[in-house]
Amino acid sequence: MAKFLAVFGLAAALLGMPANVFAAEDYNPAALPHDKASVDKLNELQLGILRAAVRSCSAFGRSQHSSNFCVTTNTDQDVRASNNEALKAFHFGLPPMDRYDEYRSQVDLQRIYGRR
After folding, report:
1. Residue 61 to residue 67: CA distance in whole angstroms
2. pTM of the entire structure?
3. 3-class SS at 70?
4. 22 near 73, Cβ under 8 Å?
5. Which residues of 23-47 are buried (b: 16+ CB within 10 A; e: fewer)?
6. Considering 23, 41, 90, 93, which has the largest number of Cβ atoms within 10 A of its Cβ?
7. What is the pLDDT of residue 74?
8. What is the pLDDT of residue 76?
9. CA 24 – CA 19 distance, rounded (Å)
10. What does each C-alpha distance from 25 to 1, 2, 36, 106, 116 come to in angstroms?
């Protein structure tokens, strides 16, 4: 029984680790621009990165990719590697359901970022 509890505790710790590692993103929310044109430009840039990840991962056939580890990881890495603070603030400020949706609408952006 002690062996079972030890293995169960180790598995729970390992499964909980990714959530703790990725809980704090390295972005500054204040870097997000306040005008609509800049937010629209960031949206197009982020969608380009997302679509490149979809092609790289051969993840065609759906528009919502939040459950595809390859797409989410590649997109997040490319955004981080861009060294564009405004893009990081835009990308990580989106909820995951919208962050990895390549067909999100302007209504979704207004809902999240409000009228700019």
Report:
1. 13
2. 0.72
3. helix
4. no
5. eeeebeeeebeeeeeebeebbebbe
6. 90
7. 93
8. 95
9. 9
10. 39, 37, 24, 25, 24
Please identify every stretch of the chain with a pLDDT value under 50, giving residue numbers as ranges: 17-24
Tell me what pLDDT residue 62 has: 67
Helix and strand counts by DSSP (H, E) for the chain: 6, 0
Token pair belonging to 62: 């759906």
How many C-alpha atoms does 116 have within 13 Å on its Cβ side? 17
C-alpha distances (whole Å) from 54 to each of 58, 70, 88, 105 are: 6, 8, 19, 18
Give residue 20's pLDDT.
36
- Residue with structure tokens 């092609």? 55
3-state secondary structure of 82: coil
Residue type, 62: R
